[in-house]
Amino acid sequence: xxxxxxxxxxxxxxxxxxxxxxxxxxxxxxxxxxxxxxxxxxxxxxxxxxxxxxxxxxxxxxxxxxxxxxxxxxxxxxxxxxxxxxxxxxxxxxxxxxxxxxxxxxxxxxxxxxxxxxxxxxxxxxxxxxxxxx
Length: 134
Hints:
The protein is an alpha+beta fold. 16% of the residues lie in helices and 42% in strands. The longest helix is centred in the N-terminal third of the chain and has 22 residues, at 2-23.
């Protein structure tokens, strides 16, 4: 009986430990597909402060990128050097037919952040989205 109680106690502790660890995960993965006319979604949602891995697959015929602008910043086409300081984080240089990945920390301030492809002419073709930080 004593062995059973010890085993039950250890099982309970292990269960609580695993539950606590599983509930604290603050990592998300965004799988995004780009074509020459836009991204596969108009919105992407991540938790505030989360570690975000972005996997950007380019199904288009030309290079693309995924640039997250700072909160409250917007770009009036055409995108240019005047807009570079508006970028919070970007994954650039994704060649046609490839997938490129990188990890960033989502902003801690909740809100809606513009996402663009800053390659000339791409915003005009519809390469814009919103990153919603909750």
